[in-house]
Amino acid sequence: MAMPDDGLLPLLERLRRDDREEDWAALIATAHASLRTVCAERLNGDLLVEDAVQESILRCRDGLAGAQWPDEPSAWAWLRRIAANTALNLAASERARRDRERHVANDRDDSTPSDGEPVIDEELRALLLRQVAELPERQRLALELRFQHGLDVRAAAQRLGMTEVNFRALA
User: Residue 137 to residues 34, 43, 78, 156, 170: CA-CA distances in angstroms?
Assistant: First the structure.
């Protein structure tokens, strides 16, 4: 659908006044390419660009009541500024999402190094070693077999000559 002969400004005024579906279709058909260009300059990826264009049209609808345009170029500038701000906001949201994902991935990576040993603060490690040293010998041995030597419950219980249930209670 082509731009009505009277231009963008009268179309926006009609939309503000009547909110007719055919006028919205005319606006989208007319402004889509321009809005897409503005959004594509600020975003990577066709899906994000198209999301920004659609969100721009919605923001245009929401801002019609308070907007004023003295002339046709001002109306176009208003519409393009909505698209630019929408794209910038979407880009910032995407960056924040990627940073959160990277932070979560780094937290996961920091807690288990490549050799499979958990990272423990040295002060905490010293405290744990002192606490384990104060345990009764049999309980200390159970913990060592299970966590230091990596034996499963069955093997560790057999090594200590006890049932799995008693071992679980001990370790």
Answer: 77, 63, 77, 15, 11
Could you write out the DSSP letters of every residue in 120-164? --HHHHHHHHHHHHTS-HHHHHHHIIIIIS---HHHHHHHHTS-H
Residue 78: phi, psi to the nearest 5?
Answer: -60, -50
Residues recorded for the chain: 171
92/159 Cα distance (integer angstroms)? 58
Prediction pTM value: 0.59
Q: Locate 50 and state its tokens.
A: 């198209």
pLDDT digits (tens, 9 = 90+) for 16-49: 999 899 999 999 999 999 999 999 999 988 889 9
Task: Dump pLDDT digits (tens) for 49-82.
Answer: 999 999 999 999 999 999 999 999 999 999 999 9
Q: Which H, E and C letters describe 45-102, residue by residue? A: CHHHHHHHHHHHHHHHHHHCCCCCCCCHHHHHHHHHHHHHHHHHHHHHHHHHHHHHHH
Would you say 26 and 71 are in contact if contact means Cβ atoms under 8 Å apart? no
